[in-house]
Design goal:
Structural class: mainly alpha
EC number: 1.13.99.1
Cofactor: Fe cation
Catalytic activity: myo-inositol + O2 = D-glucuronate + H2O + H(+)
Order of helices and strands: HHHH
Subcellular location: Cytoplasm
Pathway: Polyol metabolism; myo-inositol degradation into D-glucuronate; D-glucuronate from myo-inositol: step 1/1
Length: 86
């Protein structure tokens, strides 16, 4: 297939050497972020992650991997706290 251009974020973050954290710490960090795509919400960003995971659990109780994906789907937004644009 066609070759993709180099990704500067891969060079910056690919080694995971800036900071390491667990998923729960990243979820807590999300609560410090005002999400530009939804700036008027009055509940923490982590609440959306839990809502999503719970909704998936109810709809697909047999797919535990899918519950986890619902919980983690927005974790990349924490990069905005480290200078990346939203």
């Amino acid at each position: 297939g066609p070759q993709r251009p180099p990704c500067p974020q891969n060079a910056q973050y690919g080694s995971c050497s800036l900071r390491k954290m667990g998923a729960m710490e990243a979820l807590e960090l999300l609560d410090q972020l005002v999400d530009e795509s939804d700036p008027d919400v009055d509940f923490p960003n982590s609440y959306h992650a839990y809502q999503t995971a719970e909704g998936i659990r109810k709809a697909h109780p047999d797919k535990d991997w899918f519950h986890l994906v619902g919980l983690l789907h927005d974790l990349g937004k924490v990069l905005a706290l480290f200078g990346e644009p939203q």
